[in-house]
Amino acid sequence: DMSTAELTLIVAATLKNGIGKAGSLPWRLKKEMAYFKRVTTRIPTQQGSTDRAQNVVVMGRKTWESIPSKFRPLPDRTNLVVTRSALHVKPEVDHAVAHTVTDPSDGIAGALEHLERRREAGTVPPVGHIFVIGGASIYEQALALRQTTRVLMTRIRNDFDCDTYFPLDLDGADGEREGWRRMSLAALNAFTGEEFEDGRMVEGDVEYEFCLYERSR
Ligand code: FOL
User: Distance between terminal CA atoms of the chain?
Assistant: First the structure.
């Protein structure tokens, strides 16, 4: 069931773990965003009757609002917005796609229960991967759950001015203490379905690297 399904965080962050500035992304990286879209959309390789499956993207209300209205709900993915007040997103969601769900209950756990009920009712398609797409407080909630076993981190080498931070230093003592280990590019390719020969990228004057971290349950 959903309440124990593995969760994967996906995030782009600077070396200081900066992820946001003034309610949006501090950078505009076209190829990086294309990677986010491909990876969160691509269905894990099938066994059996999962051919209508969609991945789920779980996000906080502020992240929902940060997505340009022409791009939301993120297409071909079941969008799950975590908020204490259904009023915040409901009018837009009601005009959006049937695959969008909102839930005002207790954080990620409540949202996953909501997803489970929607599955049982048949109002959302079968679930592929579940991605947590932020922001900071949603990442923090997810990192506290043992079912969170992967982080797809795009590490941005340039320094950008940020006011929001990823709540765990994966490469530091805290990451190690909590069991996080950097995996190979082959492991990243296997999980994401990408075919990189090198995870390091350059876009304009910005350098970044696609990384995968895992921990055991
Ligand atoms: N993870 C990574 N690796 N990069 C990100 O930029 C990122 N962003 C968020 C969460 N995890 C991330 C949250 N912010 C869109 C906009 C903001 C956003 C996430 C997604 C968005 O509009 N995505 C569209 C594609 C838009 C485009 O082509 O420009 C989508 O369909 O995914």
Answer: 16
How far, in Å, is the centroid of ligand 1 from the Cα of 77? 12
> Exposed/middle/buried for 191, CB within 10 Å: 0-12, 13-18, 19+?
middle
In this predicted structure, the answer to whether residue 87 has a pLDDT above a threshold of 50 is yes
Is the Cα dihedral 89, 92, 95, 98 positive or negative?
A: negative
Contact yes or no for 193/35 (Cβ under 8 A): no
211 lines ligand 1 (CB under 6 A): no
Nearest ligand 1 atom to the CA of 33 is 6
Which residue is closest in CA terms to ligand 1's atom 16?
Answer: 67
CB count in 10 Å sphere of residue 143: 19
The DSSP H or E segment spanning 51 is none
CATH of domain 2-214: 3.40.430.10
Residue 172 in 3-state DSSP? coil
Q: What is the pLDDT of residues 120-153, one digit of tens each?
A: 999 899 999 999 999 999 999 999 999 999 999 9
Strand partners, 131: 8, 57
> Does ligand 1 have an atom closer than 6 angstroms to the CB of 10?
yes
Examine the predicted complex and report whether its ipTM is higher than 0.90.
yes
Q: Give the Cα separation of 173 and 194 in Å (integer).
A: 30
What is the CB neighbour count within 10 angstroms for residue 164? 22
